Task: inverse folding
């Protein structure tokens, strides 16, 4: 709720995300051969793994004058807007928004740091930036 979603939010699976992005690509007047749905979603997923929001990505892309990435940034912004309108998250948002929640709300972070005595990360070598930050936020009181 602190992030603007209700408790009854929906989680979009891959097919839901692809369907939404396909509509966005069409609405933006982009060629689906130049901007394949899976490719656009993979770029967005990588940015979310790096904890880069849609607006932060747009700001970075605007400084580069890369027209292809600019269109992907517009799609990312529209994608996040549509997800929010539908009270929905995709798989990448689950970690991305949890990290955001913990970073921005000390009371929530403290609650979960106290709730868990141990944090076990299976396949630690395969964690991405967002997953690492999530485990770090949960365990930072364990190792001051």
Result:
């Amino acid at each position: 709720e602190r992030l603007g979603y209700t408790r009854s939010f929906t989680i979009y699976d891959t097919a839901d995300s692809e369907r939404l992005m396909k509509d966005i690509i069409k609405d933006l007047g982009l060629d689906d051969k130049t901007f394949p749905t899976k490719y656009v979603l993979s770029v967005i997923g990588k940015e979310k793994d790096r904890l880069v929001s849609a607006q932060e990505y747009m700001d970075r892309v605007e400084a580069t004058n890369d027209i292809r990435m600019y269109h992907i940034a517009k799609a990312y912004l529209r994608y996040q807007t549509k997800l929010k309108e539908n009270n929905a998250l995709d798989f990448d948002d689950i970690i991305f928004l949890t990290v955001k929640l913990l970073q921005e709300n000390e009371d929530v972070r403290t609650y979960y740091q106290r709730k868990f005595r141990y944090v076990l990360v299976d396949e630690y070598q395969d964690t991405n930036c967002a997953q690492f930050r999530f485990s770090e936020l949960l365990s930072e009181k364990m190792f001051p």
Summary: The chain has a mean pLDDT of 95. The first strand starts at residue 10 and ends at 12. The chain has seven helices and two strands.
